[in-house]
């Protein structure tokens, strides 16, 4: 692979134009992810930008923001594109940067494919009252799979690091679901598990569920699950490379106060934003690439 102009040796061995293109995808998304990743060395930060840019592109396809006529076909194209990356075939700047990140940090193809499959679950008919197994699979694909890619870039690919990804991804995604119940209902979505909805007599229609008496009970059970995942993630972090886990610790620290604020507000008025303590509002943007 020949580059016309190279990034400084501290960064990924990619053409400057390719790295700039990937960074533009990140900054154009309007998130604070780029600022949050400043704690990483240049090469790891650039690799995370590439992972985020991939996530952003497939997420935009699933949400209908990519302007493609057939989103499911476009996601299938991404499956094929990932396979080509592992054969060393690149067609654009993001591909070239991803290939370097894949080889430098030993990123697994299955994790990329899992993310695409997670986006496909949101493509087409909205998810409404999935069963417990489907909800867990969704959380694994759209959040924990991103975590599995991320911990490798952060610098720890051990089994314990994968446990961090497993638990922290679920903790963050459940928090997102509990935070966005009203927003999701407006889109005809309801990510709460059917078993709990039935148990507490909550309608499985997203709009009817929004102010059902039992919604608070359902949400509090899921909040306890999220807290269990936070605890398990922190325990696994203790057995990992401490420096590599810095971004993961910050993400956990940014989301835990959101969950606490949600519990304090409750879910009898889910359309009212929870009051998150000010010191944590900037930190929470570090987890913007999840969901």
Question: What can be said about this structure in brief?
Answer:
The chain has helices at residues 16-28, 33-36, 42-63, 71-85, 93-105, 109-121, 132-154, 159-179, 181-186, 194-199, 206-209, 215-237, 246-265. By secondary structure, the chain is mainly α.
How would you sum up this structure, described in words?
The chain is mainly α and 291 residues long. The protein has two domains: 98 residues, Orthogonal Bundle (Farnesyl Diphosphate Synthase); 166 residues, Farnesyl Diphosphate Synthase. The chain is 63% helix and 0% strand. The protein contains 13 helices and no strands. Helix 3 runs parallel beside helix 6, helix 3 runs antiparallel to helix 7 and helix 8 packs parallel to helix 13. The longest helix is centred in the middle third of the chain and has 23 residues. The protein is globular, with a radius of gyration of 19 Å. The N terminus and C terminus are likely disordered. It comes from Gluconobacter roseus NBRC 3990. This is Squalene synthase HpnD.
